[in-house]
Amino acid sequence: MARALYIHWPFCARKCPYCDFNSHVRDNVDVDLWQRTLLADMRHEAGMAGGEPLESIFFGGGTPSLMPPPLVGALLAKAEKLWSFAPDIEITLEANPSSVEAGRFADLAKAGINRVSLGIQALDDATLRFLGRLHNADEALAALDVAQRHFARVSFDLIYARPGQTMAAWEAELSRALAFGTGHLSLYQLTIEPGTRFATDVRQGAFAPLDDDAAADLFALTRAMTAAAGLPAYEVSNHARKGEESRHNLTYWRYRDYCGIGPGAHGRRSNVATVRHRKPENWLAAVAERDHGISEERPLAVQEQASEALLMGLRLSEGIDLAVLSNRFGLPEENLISPAAARLYTGQGLLWQKDGRLGVTDSGVAVLDALLGELVPAELVAS
Domains in the chain, ordered, with CATH? Predict the structure, then answer.
């Protein structure tokens, strides 16, 4: 049964040049129509995967902080009625740190949001302009201050490994970020995603991405600094004090069921994968016609489930319990992870094994994709 709900709000004030998320710019949004349609999509999911109290809800986007607080409140009230809430439910909303959106934080907290994730991305104005952000550094820090006054838990994002970024520059920026005292940081290396404006800029020679060796050095520095500050990495790009980890994202990485509603939202429930229409107008039309926005719904073979669980779980610092996964999927442990590869890479210091668990070391995380290609048997991935 699903114990987590993802709600996608697809609208942004501007499309960032590095972003490949399902986000759209629209001059006008009919809030009443969107409320009716999101509620209908939610009712469908509750009918398919109800029965257990929700432990987390996540408003993602797009820019969910552009949502009117009454809409957020209406969605939460319906979710509680359809599922009921666990006593300590985590309800997160992604927000941009503009003064306009920060002005809504008090009302969003009253609506039920208890955790906010701020897309600060950088702490200097020149970098923010390069990243196409609408806020400046002072505005971001003012929004962070407002967030820390209104929400029990606050996280913010930074993007590093930017063109020309030095170790000294990132060390200074990360030191400043750690001093703000939030319990969670999401620290992402800049990647050039296909179809983005940055991909076009790189192809046309407007700038060159930071080289892999320099990026690896910044990654190692990031791990060392966050660990020393008491916010160790618990996932590839996410760092938290003990107990401050994103419970919603842990649902994904631990391969537990969750429902997703709104344009482009994915879900995993009762061994079925769901994908909703990406374009807002197509999603609206689908819900109007069928009372849900699903464009694809397919059963997941056991081998595919096992592969997804491995690929997600090995991103976590806690690693995976092979015996538990073997029992869950009814597959021998040697069919989940290549024993020879596990021995080899443990000996090379890229993996660790302890008390029946297998995980990736900091050195291994730096080459995670290649490592997973060797660890997870090809026939499992191919399924």
Answer: 4-253 (3.20.20.70), 324-382 (no CATH)
